[in-house]
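Q: Could you fold this chain for me?
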Amino acid sequence: MTPRGMTNRDRAGPETIAPVLRGRGLFGDQSGVGMDDAFEMRFRLQQVAAYRELCRGVRRSGRDNIFFSLFMMVLAYIAWQNQPNNLIIMLFGILIVGELLVGVFKWVAPSAEGLLLDAIVLLVFAGVNLGLQYVRFQAGGPMNPVMIFLGAFMLLNAIGRFQAYKQLRKLFAERPTAEHIAWFNELIREIQSSDPQQDDLALDLPTKPHWKAKLLGTMVFFFTVKGQNVWIAGPEDFELLREKTDRGTGLRRGLLKIHGQPYPEFEMTDATWDNYQQWQISQSPIPSSPKTPGGHE
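A: Sure. Below is the predicted structure, expressed as structure tokens.
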């Protein structure tokens, strides 16, 4: 299998990927960026990968909103026991419903705005808690130190969320859309199910962590089988080495180096090695065999 719009190795270079991305509205021409530039394309796609990971984190944090709404219910009960007041219960009810809606929003449509909504809810919650304690103080009653601590804690958390959202706005000035993420997810699913014996653009690298990769011209998409981390590399960013002979297992030991740093050795199949060799040759103006340092091919 190959990604949509690409049917073989000759059609998997940046000159083909760029039109495919433009056809989906990915980094349109209005950005002024030459998408035929391989380095720039890798950088932009890595941004999509980073924003995708951010959205996955926002979606997971939606469960925290559910738990926090339950915590609010406990605080509302405590507040009612100390000072029965319909207005207080109504305020807590609004906060609880708001927190639940934020959690649903983060699960259904995860985005950087999830952090902004979190910050708003935390700020209102802190204001209600601290405001109630101030009213009690003005009325001559004792202030609850636990509620003051919680209010201050939530206020600091709200400020932190606002600052994080501001930073994300800077980092993702040209933000990937839902279609960007959907296209990326489709590619990742394809990489995850790829078999080097059936797909000459696929690599299976069972080191630690276990990587799978797709060779798309001058871009290589790496994907961890567990954790779903994504890394987009160029020919100069990584290297594969393999023993000249096996150790009686029928498979030869291989070594993956990323930016010169070796990963633990692993058993490399012939299909993965052949795909890598062919890809290396396709990257060289003059066909040549892969490097042969030491006892490796």
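A (continued): Confidence is low (pLDDT under 50) at residues 1-16, 27-36.
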